[in-house]
Amino acid sequence: MTKREGDRVIIKLGGSLIERGREIIRFLRDYVEEKDKALTIILIPGGGPFVEVVRNLSANFSISEDTAHWMAVLAMHQYGFFLANGEIRIPVVESMNEIDGEPIRILLPYEMLKADDCLPHTWDVTSDTIAAFVANKIGEKTFIKLTDVDGIIDEKGHLIKEIYAEEMVEFEEKKGCVDTELPRFLMQNKMNCIIVNGNFPDRIIAAIEGKETRCTKILSMHTKTF
Ligand SMILES: Nc1ncnc2c1ncn2[C@@H]1O[C@H](COP(=O)(O)OP(=O)(O)OP(=O)(O)O)[C@@H](O)[C@H]1O
Ligand SMILES: [Mg+2]
Fold first, then answer.
1. What is the CATH number of the domain that holds 57?
2. Which pTM value belongs to this model?
3. Torsions phi, psi of 71, nearest 5?
């Protein structure tokens, strides 16, 4: 089977999944090869322990917000290289020009962000918003965030199945496991994010295939992609 051009899915792989991240990548590669050869999965690494180093440095030393921002972006690269170096080796890429029809690629965001430095240089922006930025840049209005919880848990301990980004902007406490800037970015760019627990492969596949599963969908009003 030949690849259908432009058939791709953007997945942010959170640092919280560092222990299983490379296993998840292998699983995703097998899924594409066995079930949907037309698909390309573009992975955006989270920050994980690498960004904690930058946070600690910026708490203890004088580092400007600009410098901390770029150091934090490069922390995503470190996690990206780590993820790429599992049982299966995957090349990392820095632009869409390097996406070559292979089942799965890890996209490192520094060059894309340098070319369009539109995100605020604050700790409100982390790899969640950066993944949304990359998805938007390449024309995808939805991305999947894989993390170590089932989605956003409300104050009563229940999973929020669907929430509007607009509502999250209004109620700070509803942000849960996404970074502070993400809801605003989704709203402004009419995008959606599906938060899925990466420890459950069946849920990841359901999200990729657009099927119902246990997750939180952050929708922006007026989007018709769901
Ligand atoms: N209301 C909430 N709902 C869900 N998770 C929450 C909530 N509040 C805090 N969390 C925490 O958010 C964590 C997930 O976010 P975290 O930023 O740690 O992971 P990640 O985004 O996968 O990783 P990274 O930011 O390194 O890429 C969960 O493990 C959970 O403890
Ligand atoms: Mg996070």
1. 3.40.1160.10
2. 0.95
3. -65, -40
